[in-house]
Design goal:
The complex is a heterodimer of chains A (about 240) and B (about 190). With about 240 residues, chain A is mainly alpha-helical. Chain A has two domains: about 120 residues, no CATH class; about 100 residues, Arc Repressor Mutant, subunit A (Orthogonal Bundle), CATH 1.10.10. Chain A is built from eight helices and three strands. A three-stranded antiparallel beta sheet of chain A has the order 1-3-2. In chain A, helix 1 packs across helix 4, helix 2 packs antiparallel against helix 3 and helix 6 packs across helix 8. The radius of gyration of chain A is 30 Å and the shape is elongated. By secondary structure, chain B is α+β, with helices and mostly antiparallel strands. Chain B has two domains: about 80 residues, Winged helix-like DNA-binding domain superfamily/Winged helix DNA-binding domain (Arc Repressor Mutant, subunit A, Orthogonal Bundle), CATH 1.10.10.10; about 90 residues, Orthogonal Bundle (Arc Repressor Mutant, subunit A), CATH 1.10.10. Chain B has nine helices and six strands, in the order αβααββααβααββαα. In chain B, helix 1 crosses helix 3 and helix 5 packs across helix 7. Classes of the chains: A mainly alpha (about 240), B alpha+beta (about 190).
Chain lengths: ~240, ~190
């Protein structure tokens, strides 16, 4: 190995072992259909040796390919009675995988360009109305509603706990099915105060993370909740 | 009348939240003939192409959608106070292309294609709704199978998955890259 092959590359640069292999192949100007196994295996193992930081999860992936390289190399060293057929070339598995991966990389490069193009073309992401409901108003409406309900006498079901995540999922599912929901109506049908409270917190969370949008076009009118466009119907 | 049809279609595209498909337009405009509608759409598109306007109609995910023109990007960013839009990571792009070219696929297949465990990346893509679950494979363990979503198409400005370069075209891109690399002086 001459000095020009002494390069230092951080592992993070590569997406994975296949990426590294492709890099080495390009670097050495190797024909992908006729890989000199000894050279490439040595290069690959050298690289793993030189690496200083160890990340166990990723290490396994790199070692897996190292094992494959060594296996193929050993297969090629075995003396055979008959010369190897083109089809039986032990390198074929690797070559196929590399070619496939190479195409995938090209495709992801293409996607990156498309992403860049699309980023500059803005689309409407919210519904026509731009009055986004003040959270304090939402809270006020909520408590007014709960008070009204209290007067009617709420039956409390005990021993049931409500998770915020569950409620958020429920609201989203409802929105996906109905396009929009009436905020007050929704809370009115909650069984207990706790449940309504959790649901309310869930709604706030959804508004905060810009998944839904709450709109009250005129004061004292129902507050409607919509999915933000980005989240609507993308399924 | 023709002019009016164009206007109606324009308003339909304007008001819809996701790319509006031709089928949908046809199903709404029952009083017009399909041919008329198609012609009106083409004229409308042409109209937007030739006229000097800040917005144009693009075709994505099999439908029509209004969008601003790329050259106005910097002013829109100023208005919306956006510095830089978040982009997908290279791992995400790689995973998406693995799915797009091999769908329907399972997580294990994606990981094998990339040579890297893709659990986390796939989870992120699911959250971003770029990918959807379409069922389970009838094989040991019944793993979930995934496809790219409508949002994937809209995000990358693709009309359908067929808009992506074919494997042959990809090989050609790779060859060109190789040539340009050889032309450049060795480091």
């Amino acid at each position: 190995m001459d000095a020009s092959t002494c390069y230092q590359v951080k592992l993070e640069v590569f997406q994975g072992p296949l990426d590294l292999l492709l890099f080495l192949i390009r670097k050495k100007r190797i024909d992908i259909h006729d890989i000199p196994m000894a050279t490439i295996t040595r290069e690959y193992l050298d690289y793993l040796d030189r690496k200083d930081r160890i990340n166990l999860d990723r290490e396994a992936e790199f070692l897996l390919i190292a094992a494959l390289l060594i296996y193929i190399k050993s297969q090629m060293l075995l003396p055979r009675e008959k010369p190897l057929d083109e089809e039986k070339d032990p390198r074929q598995v690797l070559v196929d995988q590399l070619l496939d991966y190479q195409r995938m990389k090209a495709a992801s490069g293409h996607l990156k360009e498309k992403e860049e193009e699309e980023m500059q073309q803005w689309k409407r992401t919210v519904l026509p109305s731009v009055y986004s409901e003040d959270e304090i108003d939402l809270a006020e409406s909520f408590f007014t509603l709960m008070k009204r309900k209290e007067r009617e006498g709420i039956k409390t079901i005990k021993g049931k706990e409500f998770s915020l995540e569950e409620k958020m999922k429920e609201i989203l599912a409802l929105l996906e099915a109905n396009e929009s929901i009436d905020f007050l109506d929704y809370f009115y049908h909650q069984e207990s105060f706790e449940e309504a409270l959790v649901a309310f917190l869930g709604l706030l969370e959804l508004i905060k993370s810009k998944v839904v949008i709450a709109i009250q076009e005129i004061h004292f009118k129902p507050i409607k909740v919509w999915l933000q466009k980005e989240y609507a119907k993308s399924n | 009348m023709k002019k009016r049809l164009q206007e109606i279609i324009e308003s339909l595209i304007f008001i819809s939240l996701e790319p509006l498909t031709l089928e949908k337009i046809k199903s709404v405009l029952t009083e017009f003939e399909e041919k008329e509608i198609e012609q009106a759409i083409n004229e409308l598109l042409e109209n937007y192409m030739t006229n000097e306007r800040g917005i144009h109609i693009i075709q994505a995910a099999g439908g029509f959608l209004f969008s601003t023109k790329p050259e106005h990007d910097s002013w829109i960013k100023r208005l919306l106070k956006v510095e830089r839009k978040g982009r997908l990571s290279s791992a995400a792009l790689e995973t998406l292309s693995a799915i797009a070219y091999h769908q329907p696929v399972t997580l294990a297949e994606i990981s094998a294609l990339r040579g890297v465990d893709s659990t986390h990346t796939l989870k992120t893509l699911l959250q971003k709704r770029m990918v959807k679950i379409v069922g389970r494979k009838k094989s040991p363990g019944n793993p979930l199978i995934y496809r790219t979503s409508e949002k994937f198409l809209t995000y990358f400005g693709l009309n359908s998955v067929n808009d992506l370069p074919s494997p042959e075209e990809l090989s050609k891109i790779l060859e060109e890259e190789d040539i340009s690399e050889e032309d450049s002086p060795a480091q």
